[in-house]
Design a protein that fits this description.
Layout lengths: L2 H5 L9 H17 L5 H31 L12 H33 L2 E4 L7 H15 L6 E3 L13 E9 L7 E6 L7 E4 L5 E5 H7 L8 E13 L13 H11 L5 E7 L4 H11 L6 E4 L8 H5 L26 H7 L2 E5 L5 H12 L3 E8 L7 H11 L3 E6 L7 H14 L2 E3 L6 E2 L2 E9 L2 E9 L11 E8 L2 H16 L10 E3 L3 H17 L5 E6 L5 H12 L3 E6 L16 E6 L4 E2 L2 E5 L6 E5 L5 H5 L1 E7 L3 H16 L4 E4 L5 E3 L10 H24 L7
Parallel strand pairs: 1-6, 8-9, 11-12, 12-13, 14-25, 17-22, 19-20, 20-21
Antiparallel strand pairs: 2-4, 3-4, 3-7, 5-6, 7-8, 10-17, 11-15, 15-16, 16-17, 18-25, 19-23, 21-26, 23-24, 24-25, 26-27
Length: 707
């Protein structure tokens, strides 16, 4: 690496990855605080911030703590040691949590009440009639499910499960010497957390833990309850799998999943004002440090708000659900292979339906001319039609090969179930590659036709998950390009048999070639700029934190390349540094749909190139995963993708722009048109589908005969 590029790797030019992620969660929280959003949509965004933060603790904070325990002192790209990162994160996370709960208490609760939904925050607020109701509800619905646990000389401190909500109490025997014992009961996750209370007007609810706490004395009949408080712990859930030594990867992962329940406790949440004696006991038994204790002013675990969102009778406070638009090139009941032969088909989810992807596999499963189906699966839905179609294909005698990535975080159990089901149906199942996650999204259908064997391929930026395809924005490409078909075969041969092709036609794969490919594309733009030609990079992705890619962007910027980045989440690149990043813009769009597509545009001196990928510009994607980059070469499809990027760069409603100070600010809308990219894409997909329907109607209108 040249001296110049080394200079661009100076830590002062990089933001810390974890602090950047917290800024992203602040942007999501901003949607919960945005008064222009409908009230129940705001609840949903607040719930998402809580879910995001849980995962952040279980994986990222846990990883940093492991490093500190191991006395690992190497600095990250921003020049901070793990200990320094934890210190800064401690302050930043407490600020975020305070903002979450001030949003809930001061903003959302009063508005819910004004709109006919009363949330009883403490059981002491119940009327006598309501108390009678919840007590009866406790006796009939809750009491039989509970397992109260006391701790004394004969009963050790129980296992407190990861993410479980619990009520801890200090109790004393009614006829004893006044000494205090600890007792606890887990709030059962199998019961609804939101309990509706009959009322004459509007809707009234109370949380399950409040009902249990009100009746906790019934669980410890021989004891007097001295105090009781809610608490919740987060454990290290970062699986450590010794793949080289695992004789059976599937069994090893099953074993590790169970360990998540007793990993090191890394966060303790307690309700504000908890009894000091109870808190001291919990921190001692769980070995929690003071900075990892969060006193919460409100209900623990705000993910319950997603269930609140599902309450009936408040549809006017939610965005009206929209059915994805049909894909014009693939009318219902068409022969999908015939349509693909007419030309490549670009799919834009969720604005366009995911059904064609499912139909592609369903038709292949029953088509007598289809010889083989090969597919990678990273995350699939709970009742996946794709899994059912693959199983049917195997039962119909097709050769079906499926790579199921068992290491897809928090989907491991789900994927183990599907892997076993596919094996039972006769599919050849591969459990990922040792040391690598297979994150690429590719399906290959091999078909026997009159002119020989033809290969049909689907490539995507998102998972083969029909559920998330309704809320994640992604790009898909259906093609029967001979060059891509050859590459697809090579991909699956690599995954199943370790054979590498001598050369690739169109696809580029990580971890072996993709990073170099991206770096060479950025380098080419730099050369174009130095030669005075059109040089422009637009890149859309989820996260940007690879130091080599960022340094290459800085070098391209210094050469005069215009660089526009659309990065939803983590961004370790800094903007506005003279001579380093003064020609780079970064924006993040957080809206109704989760921006998930990865699209890369290179002006290339006027000979524009556009690529899509399953990979972000992160070390894990480029160096430790199997990922695919594919070109989109048809003029119509390429123009569409450039249009998508252009609209996102013009978004004035949901876009936030990274400032030289390292903060994100809403776009200044003064004198600008109101542009909401996600809304525009929906309208355009609807218009395109309507035009196609009208065209088909005109083609098939029967002639009217007059006598």
């Amino acid at each position: 690496m040249g001296e110049k590029k080394k200079g661009f790797l100076d830590p002062k030019y990089f933001s810390n990855r974890e602090l950047s992620w917290l800024l992203f969660n602040h942007r999501v929280l901003g949607e919960a605080r945005d008064k222009s959003n409908l009230l129940f949509e705001r609840l949903k965004f607040l719930s998402i911030t809580a879910s995001n933060l849980d995962e952040f603790f279980m994986i990222r904070i846990a990883s940093l703590m492991d490093m500190v325990h191991a006395d690992y002192r190497k600095t990250d790209i921003s020049g901070m040691t793990p200990r320094q990162q934890l210190k800064k994160l401690d302050v930043a996370i407490h600020e975020l949590v305070d903002l979450q709960y001030s949003t809930y208490n001061r903003s959302l609760l009063p508005l819910l009440s004004q709109n006919g939904l009363t949330v009883v925050t403490k059981h002491q607020e119940l009327t006598e009639e309501e108390r009678d109701y919840v007590d009866q509800y406790f006796q009939s619905h809750i009491y039989p499910v509970l397992t109260p646990m006391a701790v004394d000389s004969s009963r050790p401190f129980p296992l407190i499960r990861n993410k479980s909500l619990n009520i801890g109490a200090l109790v004393t025997k009614k006829d004893g010497d006044g000494s205090l014992d600890f007792a606890t009961v887990q709030v059962p996750s199998v019961l609804p957390r939101i309990v509706q209370i009959p009322c004459s007007e509007g809707t009234k609810v109370i949380l399950l833990e409040e009902v249990i706490e009100r009746n906790i004395h019934k669980l410890f009949l021989n004891y007097k309850i001295v105090c009781s408080n809610h608490f919740r712990i987060m454990r290290n859930a970062d699986l450590t799998i010794e793949e080289d030594e695992a004789a059976d990867l599937l069994k090893e992962i099953e074993k590790q999943i169970k360990k998540r329940q007793w990993g090191e406790a890394i966060r303790l949440e307690v309700e504000q004002g908890a009894d000091e004696r109870l808190l001291k006991l919990l921190t001692k038994e769980l070995d929690i440090k003071e900075e990892n204790v969060y006193a919460i002013d409100g209900p623990l675990d705000l993910t319950f708000l997603m269930k609140m969102y599902g309450l009936e009778g408040f549809e006017h406070l939610k965005n009206q659900p929209k059915a994805p638009n049909p894909v014009p090139q693939l009318p219902v009941g068409c022969d999908i292979f015939e349509e693909i032969r007419k030309g490549d088909i670009l799919l834009h989810h969720p604005y366009q339906s995911f059904a064609p992807v499912v139909d592609f596999i369903r038709q292949a499963a029953v088509d007598p001319n289809v010889l083989a189906i090969k597919q990678t699966l990273y995350r699939v839905s709970g009742n996946s039609p794709i899994i059912a179609a693959l199983a049917q294909a195997a039962e119909n005698g097709k050769q079906v090969s499926v790579l199921v990535e068992l290491k897809a975080r928090f989907d491991e159990e789900n994927n183990i179930v599907w892997a076993r089901k596919l094996e039972k149906a006769g599919c050849h199942v591969i459990y990922g590659l040792v040391g690598l996650k297979t994150h690429s999204k590719i399906t290959l259908v091999v078909r026997k036709e009159e002119d020989g064997i033809r290969r049909y391929v689907h490539l995507g930026t998102g998972n083969y998950n029909d559920a998330t395809a309704k809320i994640y924005t992604d790009i898909g490409l259906l093609t029967c390009s001979e060059a891509i078909g050859e590459d697809a075969t090579a991909v699956f041969n690599m995954l199943s048999g370790y054979s590498e092709p001598l050369q690739w036609n169109k696809l580029t794969l990580a971890p072996l070639w993709l990073k170099d490919r991206f770096l060479s594309l950025i380098e080419r733009e730099k050369e174009r700029a130095l030669e005075g030609e059109a040089a422009h990079i637009i890149a859309k992705m989820n996260s940007l934190c690879d130091p080599d890619v960022i340094a290459a962007l800085y070098e391209a910027n210094a050469a005069g390349v215009k660089i526009d980045l659309i990065v939803r989440g983590i961004c370790c690149l800094k903007v506005g540094i003279p001579g380093v990043s003064d020609n780079i813009s970064v924006r993040s769009i957080v809206g109704d749909f989760l921006e998930h597509s990865r699209i890369f545009y290179f002006a290339n001196g006027g000979q524009e190139e556009v690529y899509c990928s399953s990979a972000d510009w992160m070390p894990r994607n480029l160096e430790r995963r199997v990922e695919i980059l594919f070109p989109v070469e048809g003029k119509e499809q390429k123009d569409k993708l450039i249009h998508f990027l252009d609209i996102m760069l013009k978004d004035t409603m949901k876009a936030q722009v990274l400032t030289p100070q390292g903060t994100y600010e809403k776009v200044d809308r003064r004198g600008k048109e109101s542009i909401l990219a996600q809304h525009i894409f929906w309208e355009e997909a609807a218009k395109e589908a309507t035009r196609e329907e009208e065209r088909v109607d005109r083609v098939f209108i029967p002639e009217t005969h007059h006598d």
